Amino acid sequence: MARSSRVLLALAAVAVAFAAADTYVVVLALPDMMSTARIPINELQRAAPVVSGFLLGYVAMLPLIGRIADLRGRVPVLVMSLMVFAAGSLVTALAYDLPSMVAGRFLQGVGGGGLVPATLALVADLYPVERRGVPLGVVSAVQELGSVLGPLFGAVVLALADWQAIFLVNLAVALVLAAAIRHLAGRGGVETVASRRPQPPDAPVVEEGALRPS
Fold first, then answer.
1. pTM value?
2. What is the rounded CA–CA span in Å between residue 170 and residue 135?
């Protein structure tokens, strides 16, 4: 497999891990977020939608994105998902009350949920059936690792800055990953299973379009 293909998959896996980390990244930040929203600490249960809003968006996208990735291409969907995640991060960082926080978190979840099926589809494009076990396992592992490390990431940022910094870091990372994925795919040289098969000279290479940015 070409090096560019491995780098592309690695970037997508990092994006999956980072989005998964946001599931519970707010756990330690909730008291500060509630203070910003002017909600008393003894009513912290009202902050539950900040977590569940992300999960709702995340889960809602899982069954939808696979088909969209088939129609629009893996890279465009990955980039689009990262941009939605970045937009949600910005909305959350600028939030001043509970509804705006929940709206931002929901957008983050929509973007994050789109990354998983698009990355799994990318694995199917890059690896033949008999070699997909390891990369699929790696994607699943980094997703779980991200969920576990999310609270730790939040704690580190909170030790250095306020809660808004968590989402500003998310914004920056998502934009960098989106730009890197788009640039790498735009350069060409990404080998797919289909591109490695012998084809007639006049056969249209439809599969390559699935990886190119729109």
1. 0.84
2. 25
